[in-house]
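Much of the work behind modern protein science is quiet bookkeeping, done one molecule at a time. The fold becomes a row of whole numbers, each drawn from a learned catalogue of backbone shapes. The protein below has been through that process, and both of its lines are reproduced in full.
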Amino acid sequence: MKYPDFKHLNYCFDRLKKGYYSDKYFVRTGDILIKEKKHPRVLMQIFAKKNGIFCGGMEATYVIKNSVSKSDGLSIKALKDGEPFSPWETVMTIEGDYSLFAHLETVYLGILARRSAVATLVRKCREKLHNKELLFFSSRFDHFLNQEGDGYAAFIGGADGVSTDANGILIGKKGIGTIPHGLIAAYNGNTVDASLAFDRCVPKDVRRIALVDFDNDCVKTSLEVAKTLKKKLWGVRLDTAENLVDASIERIGLKEKGVGPQLVRNVRNALDKEGFDYVKIVISGGFNPEKIDQFVKLNVPFDAIGIGSYFFSERIDFTADVVMVDGKPCAKVGRKYNPNDRLKTISI
């Protein structure tokens, strides 16, 4: 398998080797085996108890092979990042001298859990969206040191763009985004002025996407920005809060809150009527597969969607078991060697 450059993790290796990030009983297991000069060759088998999209195999391998005293003799096999897996299916195996890698179980299971959960939730949304753009806008909802791997997992799941440069570093992408509410506020709440400032100061190859809900009248603001930026305007983003009814919705006597189907149609119809049919619509705010499915089935005319906290809303836990020792079956009751022909050797 080809793999990204995970060198952003290199600063961790001294600590990883010492067990700093590992559950203490795994660290002590390694210490005992080394002190007892016991070097069993084991087959460690990893699985999850639910369906998902596998991700993190290459990252975990990179970490393992750089966090042991010697990697010679270690054989690591895994599903390809992006492949689906079933409950109890073996997704990864590590074979070699157990004293070398016993201390790393916490670490590699954590990598697989995080990356696979993100990739799985992104894929769930991707499958609903067909050819519409999916934007991973999740970084503000978790610790910044998670961003590199999360962005990689998002692309594995099917995201088209990410919000930070860190999110995109492993696949050679830059962060993208729109105009935030803060910039509009800095221009005294004037979305047009903020959009003009953005256009003056930001490189021309960056999409001009205006956030248009600051005054809670997305139709009015979208038209104002479109008339000012004209062809330079790539799109508008609707991000109306879930407890608010947009002014254009109130004008037609409805009570739809947040970014709903009617609001998107109102904006699309208004832009088209004024000759701005080239301006795309980006939606955001509380979306998940069920809400996306509703919009798609109703043929709501949006072009891209930004999703945030949903992508961190579910966990996929992985379990590792020693199932073979020195070539012979040896596992706790209830577990056994479960070979999987889909696993491929990861060479790093």
